[in-house]
Design brief:
Strand 2 (86-95) and strand 3 (98-109) form a beta hairpin. A 5-stranded antiparallel beta sheet has the order 2-3-1-4-5, with helices on one face. The protein is α+β, with helices and mostly antiparallel strands and 166 residues long. The protein has helices spanning 41-49, 57-70, 72-75, 114-132; strands at residues 27-38, 86-95, 98-109, 140-150, 157-158. Homohexamer; trimer of dimers. It catalyses: (8S)-3',8-cyclo-7,8-dihydroguanosine 5'-triphosphate = cyclic pyranopterin phosphate + diphosphate. Its EC number is 4.6.1.17.
């Protein structure tokens, strides 16, 4: 028989709370998030050739993703403050007009870093949109997801929805 689901961010009175992790073991935690942005040819060529008027798009987006991952606790109300030991944002052109991002976060702590990885991927993509929206307002951000996480009580997770080559 399955155990009923319990929401850890709600107390016995149904009120929101930050989960108490003080009794949890410290362990190495790693998470990888993924996302994509689809754009027109003008934007793609501008990014590749570094001719976008606002500047070097991928460098700015990379820094934005790292900064966002570090500030996740300020934007997601019940997230704990984490000292990230690593945050890396990488871009890859999947097609001429489809750019993907991977954000990897790492810490040694009592709770996972998946929200930080997801935040980093999302903000990197949003920064690309912001820097290029004058050239293509129909850019689409899609397929943002957690690809993999490890460490902690729940162990190793690998998404079954994410293709290995991504």
């Amino acid at each position: 028989m399955n155990k009923p689901l319990q929401f850890t961010h709600i107390n016995e009175q149904g009120k929101a709370r930050m989960v108490d992790i003080s009794e949890k073991e410290t362990s190495a935690r790693v998470a990888t998030a993924y996302g994509e942005i689809h754009m027109n040819k003008v934007v793609a060529d501008g990014i590749k050739n570094q001719t976008i008027k606002k500047g070097e798009v991928l460098q700015v987006a990379r820094v934005a993703g790292i900064m966002a991952a570090k500030k996740t606790f300020e934007l997601i109300p019940l997230c704990h403050v984490l000292a990230l030991s690593k945050c890396e944002v990488e871009f890859n052109w999947k097609t001429d007009q489809l750019l993907s991002v991977h954000c990897v976060t790492k810490t040694i702590g009592q709770t996972g870093v998946e929200m930080e990885a997801l935040m980093g991927a999302n903000i990197a993509l949003l920064t690309i949109y912001d820097m290029c929206k004058a050239l293509d307002r129909e850019m689409k951000i899609t397929n943002v997801c957690l690809v993999e996480k490890s460490g902690g009580k729940s162990g190793h997770f690998i998404s079954t929805n994410h293709l290995p080559h991504e």
